[in-house]
Amino acid sequence: MSASARRVPIRLTPMRRHLAAILTVALSCAFVAVMVLAGNLVQESLRASTAQTYSGADLVVEQEIPDDAWESTTPLPAPEVAGTEDVWPLTQGFAQLTSSAVADGPYLQVVLTPPGEDALEEGSPAADDSQVVLDRTAADALEVGVGDTVTLPAGTIVPEDTTDHTLTVSGIAPAAEGAALGATPRILADDANSALLLGPTRGTTTDTWLATVPAGTDPADVAAAASTGGTTVTTVEDAEQEAVDQLMTGFAALGVILGVFVVIALFTSAVVIANTFTVTVAQRTRSLALLRTLGATRGRVGRIVLRDSALVGVVGAVLGVIGGHLLVQAALAGAAAAGWLDAVMAVPVSLTSVLVPILAGLVLTVLAGLAPVRAATRVAPLQALRTVAAPPRGGFGVRGVLGVIGAGAGLALMIGGAVLAGSHPLPGILLAVLGGLLSFGGMLLALVVLTRPLALLLGRVAGRIGGLPARIAAANIARSPGRSAATVAALLIGTTLMTMMAVGARTTEASLTAELDSNRPIDLVVSAAAMPEDAAAQIAAVDGVRVAESGTVGRIDVGADEPLLVYGLDPETVRETSHRPAVADELADDTLLVGWERAEETGLQDGERITVPTVDGSTRELTVRFDANLKMPMLTPGTLEAVSQDGTRPVVVADFEDEGTAARGDTDAYGIVDAVYQVTSGDGFSEADVVAGGAEREMYGQVLRVLLGITVGLLAVAVLVALVGVANTLSLGVVERRGENALLRALGTTRRQMRAMLGWEGVLLALIGAVLGIVLGAVYGGLGVIALLGSAVAVTVTIPWGQVVLVVVAAVLAGFLASVLPGRSAARTAPAAALAAAE
What average pLDDT does this structure show over 284-301? Predict the structure, then answer.
């Protein structure tokens, strides 16, 4: 072959055939860009916060002060730092102000105005301690302007101060740097009012001071010369960076979690891309063989495929970077419009946010193209003479054997890890994680074996519903198990993880709720030294409380080192207010209900009869009954009155309305508790104590639901990529089977039947992925929670059937939608033209 011939570019397939792969790469790279930009935004926010702390300063001075200086009631002298101009203390105080428009005002940071800095948007500095300067954020929060008054409540700064202070707003300063990210609202104190706003020491009881240097002086030179002995001087830039680095360590775990989702999305994309190029190579086997016949080397053929994959990666990555940045900018604009940010800020574009996604996309496509490249270089020249493709090999194969062994061994390790975690949590969890990875890897390998029988099985069922198109669709899937398995693998990742998270979250919520119900089956317990007679009625009237009943509480002597705190409740009260009404059936006179943990602390045994002293000096026998891990031991009120040596105190027990009901409305558990606190602060209540187990129970549920929502949202990227893969597989199948489709059309198959055939193929692929994913996800979610929580609580594996059905319905619907465009393409096939063009 001549040198000029070698320079002629050879394209394996038209670029339009790779649109799905480009879209896949773009989605994944956009996800990477969004994650990088999210990290940039966090750093920007933290940097803005630290910049606000050091506003107006050039240097940060840290100097040790004697222990007795912390008790000073007079201002301490500023440290002497050579080369500085002004030095003032770094204050960390907060004060609550109220106004006529905002009765429950926000807490504002009190900072000293840097000496010589009086740049105000309007008004003038405070003339005395009856005036105050606020920044724009604080003024907006209090809805005040220059000339309006605000109130500093008594005791806010100095606990002994019993006077409310009315202050006139004399000036408003600009908002701090980073206000677009929600900077902390500030009160700007100066010499005129610092004693009132910062206390008698005027904020000088601190070991951190701020300083400025004369104009033209390098702060770094001053810092290097002034850092001696017990004094450390750093530039503000270095201090800000150190503070940001320290704060970012707290986000390390979150970064790892987000990184996992990025890897999931990239892995799913790799499966789709590899499938695309594998099918492309298979479709062009004769073309590649012809190139080999004409003298093209294996390396030349490999470079053709590799070049196409790299081009797909670059184009997709660039589109993804642009899309990711635009998406974040739109999110920031939306957040500002919703009032979550004070202003629209520009997306923090950086070299990292551009290069990392592009490199990820390029590496992703090149790696995903290695297997197709290897397949392309194995094409023999004689294959150009074949008119019929070799049929797929049957049998289990090495891959299937390895997959089944890996899946079985991994499942065994997961079960063993879950059991081991009950006594040795960390080794058990690690073993379960290892088993999960091994079993899932085995399942991915075994998919090529499982896809064919599952497709045929589902095809029989679908054939009864969809007729001939459904049966042909199932046969097409079974005929190309490798390509179909790759598509199912992409779907399997998303559905498995989504089901795992749903089952895990629901199981965790159910297990923790059961544990809390076991410990404290009553949502709210209010005890006091004294209560009004209508205390139960007052608490029952609080929004969100379903019912409230009266009882008593006291201590009894059971022979332990300390008396046992026992609640006196009658069975009907327990039945009305408890999450475990069955407890009431065990409650009777002279029966002490107690949980095993309290029993261990006091040496009680289930079923034993104990003798306790009574109020009148005699004794009384009680029968001990264990009730799970009940941490509020119970007696009937009459029995408790007789055996409580120090008498009893009144108690009100209450049950919350169920979340999401009309009776509950929008009131959350903590809102109910706050309202109960207001009731107990009223007349007639003395030394009231409120225990709200229901608030803790609902908090767990809310946290788990939020985490589940975030997780599902992040996993949706992987699912979206997988659905693009389904559409891609169907589209490539249409191209691959143009001759067959033409023959079907020539034999009388209608356009509608052609579209139905592709629709059923998409639905069946989605069903295979969904069914396998649900089974695996349920197993992983259940065993995972047992491994994580089994040593602490009794785990009850709970399947959220509603969410499981939703996953199946969503998968089927998405599979059908993914078939729409390929179906239209197949339906447009002209019999004569397609038969003429067939190879």
Answer: 76
The angle at the Cα of 387, spanning 385 to 388, to the nearest 5 degrees, equals 130
What's the pTM value of the predicted model, to 2 decimals? 0.65
What does the alpha-carbon distance between residue 85 and residue 136 come to, in Å, rounded to a whole number? Answer: 28
Q: Are 159 and 149 in contact (CB under 8 A)?
A: no
Question: Identity (one letter) of the amino acid at 762?
Answer: G
What's residue 388's pLDDT? 47
Element (H, E) at 340: none
C-alpha R_g of the chain: 36
Judge whether residue 52 has pLDDT over 80. Answer: no
Neighbour-count burial for 379-408, b at 16+ CB within 10 Å, e otherwise: beeebbeeeeeeeeeeeeeebbeebbebbe
CB 602, CB 560: distance < 8 Å:
yes
What single string gives the DSSP state of each residue in 20-55? HHHHHHHHHHHHHHHHHHHHHHHHHHHHHHHHHHTT
Give the separation between CA 585 and CA 605, rounded to whole angstroms: 20
Indicate the average pLDDT of the chain: 83
Q: Which of 307, 312, 318, 314 lies closest to 273 in space, CA to CA?
A: 312
When mean pLDDT is compared across 175-189, 599-613, 669-683, the lowest value belongs to 175-189
CA distance 343 to 332: 9
Instruction: Kindly tell me if the per-residue pLDDT of 374 is higher than 70.
Output: yes
Contact indicator for 790, 420 with CB cutoff of 8 Å: no
- Is residue 549 a contact partner of residue 652, using CB atoms and an 8 Å limit? yes
Q: Are 483 and 729 contacting, i.e. CB atoms less than 8 angstroms apart?
A: yes
Distance between CA atoms of residues 774 and 769, nearest Å: 8
**Which string of DSSP letters, residue by residue, matches 206-249?**
-SEEEE---TT--HHHHHHHH-BTTEEEEEHHHHHHHHHHHHHH
Q: What pLDDT does residue 167 have? A: 95
Alpha-carbon dihedral sign for residues 467, 723, 12, 282? negative
Token pair for 616: 């009148």
Dist. CA 639–CA 294, nearest whole Å: 102
DSSP character string of 382-430? GGGG-SSPPPPP-S-HHHHHHHHHHHHHHHHHHHHHHHHHTTSHHHHHH
- What residue type is 72 in one-letter code? S
Which residue bears the tokens 């985490």? Answer: 707
pLDDT mean over 339-354: 79
User: Could you tell me how many helices (H) and strands (E) the chain has, helices first?
Assistant: 27, 21
| Contact of 222 with 103, CB cutoff 8 Å | no
22-46 pLDDT per residue, tens: 887 888 888 888 888 888 887 777 7
The token pair that represents 124 in the structure block: 């003038």
Q: Each residue of 721-759: pLDDT tens digit?
A: 777 777 776 776 676 666 677 777 777 888 888 888 888
Residue 394 has pLDDT above 60, yes or no: no
CB contact at 8 A, 98 and 104: yes
Residue 138, CA distances (Å) to 98, 150, 171, 176, 193 in order: 11, 11, 12, 10, 17
Secondary structure of 154-167 as H, E, C letters: CCCCCCCCCCCEEE
Give the C-alpha distances (Å, rounded to integers) separating 544 from 536, 679, 703: 14, 14, 20
pLDDT per residue as tens digits for the range 773-808: 899 989 998 998 898 888 777 888 888 888 888 888
8 A C-beta contact, residue 272 and residue 361: no
Distances (CA, A) of 542 to 167, 370, 512, 533, 664: 36, 67, 27, 16, 11
Q: What is the dihedral angle through the alpha carbons of 296, 299, 305, 308, rounded to the nearest 10 degrees?
A: -100
CA 325/CA 348 separation, integer angstroms = 9
Question: pLDDT (tens digit, 9 = 90+) per residue, 82-135?
Answer: 889 999 998 877 888 989 888 777 778 898 888 877 778 899 999 999 999 999
